[in-house]
């Protein structure tokens, strides 16, 4: 997408430079804008790759946390069940 935008900007600048051929300052500023735009593409790509890697790692961390939550929930449920069994056993012993 960025490459297409740069090509489109390049065509516009070429056209504008032909139309404004008498104004050299305009031509230079437009060429500088085009050069800066071309330099931004690799940096944007690098930043997107870093962001993608960060988000992927975050997703893995969230999935790990969800798995741990399921394990803790199962342990808690099991512990609660065992506690109730113990309470019932103690109550039964008190009857005798």
Automatic annotation (TrEMBL):
Gene3D superfamilies tied to this protein: 1.20.58.90
One of the protein's GO biological processes: tubulin complex assembly
GO terms assigned for molecular function: beta-tubulin binding
Domain of life from the UniProt record: Eukaryota
GO cellular component: microtubule
Protein name, as recorded: Tubulin-specific chaperone A
Transmembrane segments: none
UniProt subunit comment: Supercomplex made of cofactors A to E. Cofactors A and D function by capturing and stabilizing tubulin in a quasi-native conformation. Cofactor E binds to the cofactor D-tubulin complex; interaction with cofactor C then causes the release of tubulin polypeptides that are committed to the native state.
Localization of this protein: Cytoplasm, Cytoskeleton
Role of this protein: Tubulin-folding protein; involved in the early step of the tubulin folding pathway.
UniProt keyword terms in alphabetical order: Chaperone, Cytoplasm, Cytoskeleton, Microtubule
Sequence similarity: Belongs to the TBCA family.
Natural source organism: Meleagris gallopavo
Entry-linked InterPro entries: TBCA, TBCA_sf
Main location: cytoplasm
């Amino acid at each position: 997408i960025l490459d297409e935008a740069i090509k489109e900007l390049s065509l516009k600048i070429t056209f504008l430079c032909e139309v404004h051929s008498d104004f050299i300052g305009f031509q230079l500023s437009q060429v500088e804008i085009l050069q800066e735009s071309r330099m931004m593409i690799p940096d944007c790509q690098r930043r997107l790759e870093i962001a993608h890697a960060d988000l992927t790692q975050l997703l893995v961390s969230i999935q790990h946390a969800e798995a741990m939550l399921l394990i803790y929930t199962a342990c808690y449920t099991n512990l609660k069940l065992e506690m109730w069994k113990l309470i019932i056993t103690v109550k039964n012993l008190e009857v005798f």
